[in-house]
Amino acid sequence: MNQFSETWKPGIAVAPESGPIIEFFGLPGSGKTTVARKLHAMLSATQPDLIFAPALLGDGAGAAARATSKLGLILSDLGHDGAGRDAVRLAMAIRQPRLRDKFRAVFGIATMMSLYARLERRGLSAVLDQGLLQALWSVQLRTEDDGCRALVRECLSNAAGTGRVYVSVETPARICIDRLAARHSKHSRLQKLGTADADRTWERAEFLRRALLRDLQTAGRRHGVAPRIIVIDGTTDATDTTGQIVAQLRENRPAHRPHRPHRKTEHQEMKA
Fold it and tell me: Is residue 89 part of a domain?
């Protein structure tokens, strides 16, 4: 069994079903947006108010329109989220090789935290083709500054108990490279690598991806919560994969728990 598949352990409460906010995470070219779009289409048949985040963020428009949409989101919603402001502050402190990289890192974190603030404040459900994990991955890929660890801990500590569903898209780097090469757009920095840097950077990209999933689970354990992670194969047919995600989302999860005494966490005992 994949180490990031959904599991239940005694003494760990399952993250509450609320919303939900479903976010995809994977290497560039792994198939995140393709599957996320199909998932939204399938779920919106019975959930007409379900939001597809790329549409909200103007991802179908030009670069200027996308930036304007995201900036408007930040200005209107980041002020309502103390955790979001803390995350942005930490991102600003991280050294980056270029000023452009720092701007992208801060802007990416601010956009995701603002988006979460709007969705959660208004009680909205959404499918995100990339979310907080992707933004953290991007920040770490651009720098080796130790300050990244503080940013990751801060963000994941606040994210672990939110009830979000994380869909991890696992696709070999070679397939991702081929898919990116076939694209006309060049949004990912991994599309612009020279041959000498490519293998080393892709290896680090995959290492960081797996490390973030482990960090998310570790943050969950600290809060007595098991983050809900669904692992999919990015090389299989997108329609079949989408059906598998829907089936897992609709599972009656408590029915699959082993019949063992449930030990309350310290937080639960305090609430009782």
Answer: yes
